[in-house]
Amino acid sequence: MLNRRHLRIKALQNIYAWQMTDKRDLASSKKNLMNSIDNVYEMYIRMLALLSEITEYTAIDAIERANKHFPTPEDLNPNQKLLHNKFIVLLQKNPEFQAAVNKYQVNWNAEPDFLKTVYNKLKATPEYAAYLADPNDSLEESKEIIKFIFRKIILKSQNIIQTFEDKFINWSVDKEVMQGMVAKTLKNFVNEDPFKNKLTPISADWDEDSKFVQDLFLYTLKHNNEYQEMIAERTKNWESERIALMDTILMKMAICELMNFPSIPVKVTINEYLDLSKDYSTPKSNSFINGILDKILGDLKRTNSITKIGRGLIEE
What we know:
Keywords: RNA-binding, Transcription, Transcription antitermination, Transcription regulation. This is NusB antitermination factor. One of its GO terms (molecular function) is RNA binding. Belongs to the NusB family. The structure is a single chain. About 70% of the residues lie in helices and about 0% in strands. The radius of gyration is 25 Å and the shape is elongated. The chain has helices spanning about 5-20, 25-65, 75, 85-95, 95-105, 110-125, 125-135, 140-155, 160-165, 170-190, 205-220, 225-235, 245-260, 265-280, 285-300. The chain is mainly α. It folds into two domains: about 25-190, no CATH class; about 205-305, N-utilizing Substance Protein B Homolog, Chain A. The model has no long low-confidence stretch (mean pLDDT about 95).
C-alpha cells in the first residue's frame, strides 16, 4: 500500500514535472498526479494477472506435450496441480480482481511466447518438482509456490522487468510498493469463499490520503511564489543557480505542510523531507535543507503562522 512517504514522492515527482514544463495547467497536472498513483494499482493488478496466467499455461503446456510426435506416458498424463492452485482459483473468482482486470484491460494471453518462457523456467526448478510431488493441496501450500514464482522467477526475469519498465515510467520507484501489495494479498487470502477475500487497497484510508496528496500538490503550486520568497529571504548569501531545483521543491513542500496540515506534527514534516532529500537530491542537500527549514520554521513560529491541532504537534 502507499503510505504518506510514497504520496509525498508522488507529489514531488509531479511538482518537479510542473517546474520543468512551460504548459502549466493545474487541472491537467492534478490529473497526472492521480494517474501516477493509479498506475501503482494497475501495476499490482497486472502482476497478479501474470501469476494467474502462468498457472493457466499449465493447460497449454499439457496440450503441446500430448501433441508431440512421440509423447511419453508422462506427456499424455502430465501433473496439472498448478492449474488448480487454490490461491489462484480464489483470485480468479474474486469480483474485485475481475473488475480491475477489465478496467485495465489486462491480457497476458496476447503474449504466449512470453508466458511459455516464464513457465519453462519454472518447470526447470527443483522447487516446482517438489511442489508437484507433494500430495498436500492446502491453501497455505498453494501460496508457497506462488510466492516462489513471484520472487524467484518473475522478479528475477529481465524480460518481465523490461516489460513493466516499458509500461510504467516509475517502475523503479513503485516496484517495492507493488511487491508489498502482492505479498499482503497472499497473506490476506485466507477464506475459501472468493467473495470474502479482499485485494490490497491502494492505501489504508484512501479518502483521507487522496485529500492529503492533492492538497499538498495544489497548495504547494498555488503558493509557489510566496514560498519562494520565504526561501529567498533565508538564502540571500546563495546564488540562486547554486540551489538545486529539487532542494527548492522539497523546501516548498515542507513549508506547505507546516502551514496547511494541522494534524501533522512539525517534527514529522521536517524529518520526512530531510529523508526524501537523501534519495532525491545531492549529498549536501540534507544539511542545507535542514538549516534553511530551521530558520523558516523559526520565522513561522514568531508570526504565529503555524496552527496545529493537538498537544505537542508544533514542537520539534
